[in-house]
């Protein structure tokens, strides 16, 4: 496999508090990043395309906290391009997660 998966971190801003979603190609060492100011994504879930041909053919789902609105949203990203497909705001804040676990703030 050419990709090591998807991880959270901030490679562009150097701050632990400004999170990004990062996809790294292990063959070329190139990274693709989704980042939005004041938004803090959770760990992603990869949903493969059932008829996909490439290992990154599918979508990523992440629950993201938007501190500007004090509200969370479900983020849907094209896993191949790391471009946002859709977002759906919840109307409330969802507590931060770590490996699928929920923690109260």
Automatic annotation (TrEMBL):
It comes from the Eukaryota. Transmembrane segments: none annotated. Fe cation binds at residue 99. Binds 1 Fe(2+) ion per subunit. One of its GO terms (molecular function) is metal ion binding. InterPro entries: Carotenoid_Oase. GO terms for biological process: carotene catabolic process. Its cofactor is Fe(2+). Keywords: Iron, Metal-binding, Oxidoreductase. The keyword Ion transport does not apply. Belongs to the carotenoid oxygenase family. This is Uncharacterized protein. It comes from Leptocylindrus aporus.
């Amino acid at each position: 496999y050419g990709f090591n998966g998807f991880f959270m971190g901030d490679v562009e801003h150097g701050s632990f508090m400004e999170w990004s979603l990062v996809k790294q190609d292990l063959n070329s060492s190139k990274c693709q990043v989704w980042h939005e100011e004041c938004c803090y994504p959770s760990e992603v879930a990869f949903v493969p395309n059932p008829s996909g041909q490439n290992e990154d053919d599918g979508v990523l789902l992440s629950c993201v906290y938007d501190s500007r609105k004090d509200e969370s949203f479900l983020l849907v990203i094209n896993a191949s391009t790391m471009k946002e497909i859709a977002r759906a705001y919840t109307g409330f804040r969802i507590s931060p997660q770590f490996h699928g676990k929920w923690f109260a703030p």
